[in-house]
Amino acid sequence: MAELAGAPDGALNIGSVCADRHVRLGRGAATAISWLGRRQERRDITYGELAEQSGRIARVLAGQGLEPGETVAVLLGRIPELYGAALGIWKAGGVYCPLFAAFGPGPIKARLELGKAAILITSDELYARKVASSRAALPHLRQVLLVGEDGAIAVLPQGCADLRALVAAAQPMEAVPTTPDAPAFLHFTSGTTGTPKGVLHPHRAVLAHLVTGRKVFGLTEADVFWCTADPGWVTSTSYGIIAPLVCGAALVADEAELEPRRWYGILHDEKVTAWYTTPTAIRTMMRYGAALARSYRENSLRVAASVGEPLNAEAVMWGQKALGVPFLDTWWQTETGAITIANGPGTDRRPGSMGRPLPGVEAVIMRCEAGTPKQVDGIDVVGELAIRTCWPSMFSGALGEETRYGDCFRDGWYFTGDLVKRDKDGFIWFVGRADDMIKCGGLQIGPFEVEGSLMDHPAVAEIGVVGKPDMLVREVPVAFVSLNPGFEAGDALRAELISYARQELGAGMAPREIHFVEELPKTNSGKIMRRVLKAKAMGEPDGGDILSTLPPCPGRYDDE
Ligand code: WT7
């Protein structure tokens, strides 16, 4: 904490430790952000410029009457203002609440309402399409600050101001002295069922970003770090903004949608040293083939890592070969705020597993006995992953839902809602979400185990497995599969995949049905929406808010 504290009274402000601190240490001229535009534009922003820009934005927000602790929602793509806005909001003492630009007007309105956003920063184009129609129904929203998509804003809509014009006229402001416990950022979790949960993190979370930036990615001021996450996802806040900046590295911000050819180009041209992406990205690269990867084999990479979904061993091995560097899996959640379990760094890795808890993280596996969760020590025993609550980036609240927040904790443990098992060397293996488990006769089937096995078949590009209700055995596993190029959907392949699964997994665990699909339904953060697949398997429309998650509940995983 001492390394980061900016003021003698113990104040800690993410905005100032990510920018002003580097300027104070004489690194104002170092590159903080290399921004790559959709139309091949580029802009390099130094730490000095970032400190000044965020100070100006903080002044603008304070000038709009923003009180410390109030929420500022941000609905922007990866444009330079996104970074100045996040840091500026922190410096002004506000709570940064990014939203997915891919959301429609409904989910945006719901989150502005739930988060009681006082100010919204967005683009003129997104405002017109996604917010204007609900503005009258959002009494908390006092001001909207617009960034012109194409430079100047021709006609300012009523009740909006031009952010760039205000920033140009503002004097930079010093960060307000926030305490480590003051709320700093708010995300709505994007799982598969239930109503959205507003997950709140305090300024102290930055300690976990500093530690994991250094320990997992080995970040120093010499690094170029690229995190591909969408700004609406906590991964972007924690690793697309905070971790590289607090470590003094340069971050790459690419405005474009992800596309393998462009990725390889960026990794190469920007001399990226550490890359943080998703299993979907690496599997997409696999689809594009090894020849393309080989043509970019010369790169500056030191390490690559993925998060968000289980990373199968085949993808790890492929990634390592294609990129020529260690490829780590990392596990965490919106609620833990930063990486808590990682495969590596160093030589200590086990492809296919999530890895082991980071130093300082105490993680155990719990099973319920007569309604009381108990730690299990056995090898390969499936239970719910629980974490001691002292990790600095652990969430500090579920917005306006005391009970829902309290429900996640018991006896000083936070219950993650993920089912895992541990091998003899302490590596943790993902089994599934507690709410995704398939109960088939006497068997508990983890969808990921079935998915992982079929992923090894050359025809399978992606797969989602869900339980379909069955009169006899309660549920049977059924699979939705998208195919690699060169394979044809049809009865012959269906029979082949089923027999392959029976051989690999045994008849009890093998899917009873295989449905071929072009693409699997995914959340904006890239998670397979098993609930949608389940509805499909049952022949129902998917309906409902598909972008929220079930609250974790201690001991929900019971033997029954
Ligand atoms: C859930 C959390 C991760 C940060 C961003 C957001 C799943 C995450 C892994 C992994 C298997 C993983 C879990 C977790 N998950 N990382 N390495 N292997 N599953 O996360 O939207 O809050 O989702 O993502 O189920 O609980 P989130």
Automatic annotation (TrEMBL):
GO-annotated biological processes: acetyl-CoA biosynthetic process
Coiled-coil regions listed: none
One GO cellular component term noted in the UniProt record for this chain: cytosol
Domain AMP-binding enzyme C-terminal: 449-527
Annotated segments matching region Disordered: 541-560
Pfam families in alphabetical order: AMP-binding, AMP-binding_C
EC number annotated for this UniProt entry: 6.2.1.1
Flavoprotein recorded as keyword: no
Keyword terms: Acetylation, ATP-binding, Ligase, Nucleotide-binding
GO MF annotation list: acetate-CoA ligase activity; ATP binding
InterPro entries per UniProt: AMP-bd_C, AMP-bd_C_sf, AMP-binding_CS, AMP-dep_synth/lig_dom, ANL_N_sf
Name of protein: acetate--CoA ligase
Organism: Paramagnetospirillum caucaseum
